[in-house]
Design goal:
Helix content: 10-25%
Largest sheet: 9 strands, antiparallel
CATH class of the largest domain: Mainly Beta
CATH topology of the largest domain: Jelly Rolls
Number of helices: 5
Structural class: mainly beta
Strand content: 35-45%
CATH architecture of the largest domain: Sandwich
Shape: globular
């Protein structure tokens, strides 16, 4: 028997986290301040727990091991569960960082690389991100800029607003800056190489670790063109669908529902996170802002309500 289920996230605090995920996204327990809520996670040691249905209280990784068919045919040949979904509260600036691609990551870290997508769920006035270089740069320039604390001047600094989407391919230097709440969809990887951290100190009072040599080995030094924001959507009777990203690792869509939205994928699992509103699944399970649901491949269900979601599949 296959059925959809909600997940309980793993809540993590970092020095740049805040209180928005608890105040506005219905996260409870865990640390007083929450930087990241790992909504859908089979990452070793940070697995989500199934919260509803016949598998309630089971570790998500254990469920997948017992029910590999839940992933669907599109997941065949992939190493482990392919994606990781997070909610991020950037109350402070995140470090300037980069993630490696699959080749370097498998060789040096024994795990997949990290291509990701950001959906800007909320942004305070004036909030920005760093996204790639504003011109071609040399390795020598980068080393000098890091040493002289001028790296930020080489980056595209982009104002953001709710609803914007940024596809962050492995190798793209980037940072979320203060005042942004993000739904992040990424490869199931924990690799982050920090290039620059504004001279901050961690909770232990020591400067946070940088990974300059590894970062320089994987980053793209060419000028990064700014992405265009798609405003178009496919309109149906009870819902509107806007495609956000499509890559070898995942397909992500924003879906605004006012009525009934059917969910059925024969060859891939589906997962979604609620951005706004409330509704019910076909089995009567209630869903509200901040909930994340996993729908096994071949499971036939639906959402009924006035509700907006970010949906991901393969």
């Amino acid at each position: 028997m296959t059925e959809p289920f909600k997940l309980s996230p793993v809540l993590l605090d970092y020095i740049w986290g805040g209180e928005k995920l608890k105040k506005y996204w219905n996260k409870t327990g865990g640390p007083a301040k929450v930087a990241e809520s790992w909504e859908l996670s089979a990452y070793p040691g940070k697995e989500s727990i199934i919260a509803t249905g016949i598998h309630a209280s089971q570790n998500f990784s254990a469920y997948l091991a017992a029910h590999p068919e839940a992933l669907g045919q599109k997941a065949e040949g992939r190493r482990g569960f392919p994606i990781l979904v997070k909610l991020i509260d950037a109350t402070g600036d995140l470090s300037i960082q980069v993630h490696p691609g699959d080749g370097y990551a498998m060789e040096h870290e024994n795990q997949p690389g990290k291509t990701e997508m950001w959906y800007i769920a909320d942004a305070e006035p004036g909030a920005c991100i760093y996204y790639g270089f504003n011109r071609d740069v040399t390795e020598e320039e980068l080393r000098r800029a890091i040493n002289e604390n001028t790296l930020c001047s080489l980056l595209n600094k982009i104002p953001v607003k709710a609803g914007d989407t940024y596809f962050v391919e492995a190798g793209t230097v980037h940072a979320l800056l203060a005042g942004i709440t993000v739904i992040e969809i990424q490869q199931n990887s924990g690799i982050t190489y920090r290039l620059y951290d504004y001279g901050r100190k961690g909770a232990d009072g020591k400067p946070r670790e940088l990974h300059i040599e590894k970062a320089l080995a994987v980053l793209d030094r060419s000028k990064k063109e700014l992405p265009l924001q798609s405003c178009g959507a496919d309109n149906y009777k009870d819902y509107k669908i806007r495609k956000l990203a499509e890559c070898p690792y995942f397909v992500a869509r924003e879906i605004n529902i006012d009525g009934i939205y059917p969910i059925y994928h024969a060859s891939s699992f589906v997962t979604f996170t609620v951005i706004e509103g409330q509704g019910t699944l076909f089995d009567g399970t209630g869903i509200i802002k901040g909930d994340t649901v996993f729908v096994p491949a071949g499971c036939d269900t639906s959402i009924n309500g006035k509700i907006s979601i970010i949906e991901t599949s393969l």
